[in-house]
């Protein structure tokens, strides 16, 4: 579990994060949504320790990352897996080498043990035949799966995914969502997904935080978001025709139930 208490972050004289408090639950997909400039990316960088807030606490199982020394932060970061927006694979490395990279950096395993772990996670994301391929030889969806494999190879307690469906077709996006959800539950991870994809919100949004101009504007589940009366949230999410239809269907169901 990750808990934020009154987190504030400014750059020069501009306050970007304005007193945000929230709890991110283990074994759940916690989604942070919001338009560009809402503060969700800055907030996430504060959570993983890339930015230091001027005020507030960010607690990992009760331990405040803000007050940790360099050694403690390094130990914590080894428990954090990251899936970057562009997958961020090394073009000159094979899939196997990309996934093994965190093991080379942070583990004391011998080569055979590292190879076994790489085999395990590539099998988990259904890429058993991709070991010797280079990033240029695989599709965008496969690159995302390699990114997920690399993110979980150290068996992290926390998984952060930055726009995991960016650049993917709808069918592949659904597969990535399903994989993230399955891995979250399977390993009981605290998963945090930064996304603009409203289909992801409806598919895997166990816990959703909507950011607006540096504030936590709304918080709830994907079942609750359809019924939200928050005007700012509704203006954001119901720009999607898919969600407009979903809301109409839900409202019709409620009317029939009454």
Explain the overall architecture.
It is a single chain. Helix content is 40%, strand content 24%. The protein contains nine helices and ten strands. It has helices spanning 40-47, 70-77, 95-106, 111-124, 140-152, 170-187, 198-204, 231-237, 241-257, and strands spanning 2-11, 14-24, 28-33, 55-60, 63-64, 80-83, 158-162, 190-194, 207-212, 215-220. The protein has a six-stranded mixed beta sheet. Helix 3 (95-106) packs parallel to helix 5. The model has no long low-confidence stretch (mean pLDDT 90). Residues 2-238 form the ABC transporter domain.
What's the layout of helices and strands?
Blueprint: E1 2-11, E2 14-24, E3 28-33, H1 40-47, E4 55-60, E5 63-64, H2 70-77, E6 80-83, H3 95-106, H4 111-124, H5 140-152, E7 158-162, H6 170-187, E8 190-194, H7 198-204, E9 207-212, E10 215-220, H8 231-237, H9 241-257
Parallel strand pairs: 3-8, 3-9, 6-7, 7-8
Antiparallel strand pairs: 1-2, 1-4, 4-5, 9-10
Helix pairs in contact: 3-4, 3-5, 4-5, 5-6, 6-7
């Amino acid at each position: 579990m990750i808990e934020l208490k009154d987190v504030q972050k400014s750059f020069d004289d501009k306050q970007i994060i304005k007193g945000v408090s929230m709890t991110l639950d283990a074994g759940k997909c916690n989604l942070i949504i919001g338009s560009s400039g809402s503060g969700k990316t800055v907030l996430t960088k504060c959570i993983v320790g890339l930015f230091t807030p001027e005020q507030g606490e960010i607690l990992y199982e009760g331990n405040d990352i803000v007050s940790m020394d360099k050694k403690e932060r390094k130990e914590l970061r080894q428990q954090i897996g990251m899936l970057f927006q562009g997958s961020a694979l090394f073009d000159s490395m094979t899939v196997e080498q990309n996934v093994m990279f965190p093991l080379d950096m942070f583990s004391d395993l011998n080569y055979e043990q590292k190879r076994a772990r790489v085999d395990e996670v590539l099998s988990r994301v259904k890429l058993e035949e991709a070991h010797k391929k280079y990033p240029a030889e695989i599709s965008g969806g496969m690159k995302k799966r390699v990114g997920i494999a690399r993110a979980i190879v150290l068996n992290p307690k926390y998984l952060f995914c930055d726009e995991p469906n960016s650049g993917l077709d709808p069918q592949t996006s659904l597969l990535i969502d399903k994989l993230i959800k399955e891995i979250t539950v399977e390993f009981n991870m605290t998963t945090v997904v930064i996304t603009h994809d409203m289909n992801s919100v409806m598919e895997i949004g166990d816990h959703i935080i909507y950011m607006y101009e540096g504030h936590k504007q709304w918080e709830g589940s994907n079942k609750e978001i359809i019924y939200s009366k928050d005007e700012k949230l509704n203006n954001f999410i119901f720009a999607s025709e898919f969600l407009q239809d979903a809301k109409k269907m839900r409202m019709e169901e409620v009317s029939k139930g009454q």
